[in-house]
Amino acid sequence: MAKSKSSYSNYRIKQFSSFEEMDEDKAKQMAVILPVEHLKNTTKLIKNIYDEKLKQPMSKRIKFKK
């Protein structure tokens, strides 16, 4: 039988005594990530959220509101 790897094997559950402590930890994690990685993650998230909308053909006309 093949050995399956869990996608959560690299994660640990952290407990925090306050929201401020949680926010500080999250900020430290985000500071380690390179700016290019932030852009890649953001682009991936946007594409994931607007997946159906991006599949539809778009008009090439620019529309201005009056």
Question: What's the helix and strand layout?
Answer:
Elements: H1 19-32, H2 35-49, H3 51-55
Descriptive account of the structure:
Helix content is 52%, strand content 0%. It is an all-alpha fold. The radius of gyration is 20 Å and the shape is elongated.
List keywords for this structure.
66 residues; mainly alpha; 3 helices
- The coarse overall form would be elongated
Structural class: mainly alpha
Helix amount: 40-55%
Count of distinct strands: 0
* Overall mean confidence score, pLDDT: 85
Give the biggest sheet.
none
List SSEs in N-to-C order.
HHH
Low-confidence stretches: none
For the termini, the CA-CA separation is 66 Å
Number of helical stretches of at least 4 residues: 3
- Per DSSP, what share of the residues sits in E-state strands of 2 or more residues? under 5%
Radius of gyration: 20 Å
Question: Quick recap of the structure?
Answer:
The protein is mostly helical and 66 residues long. The chain contains 3 helices and no strands.
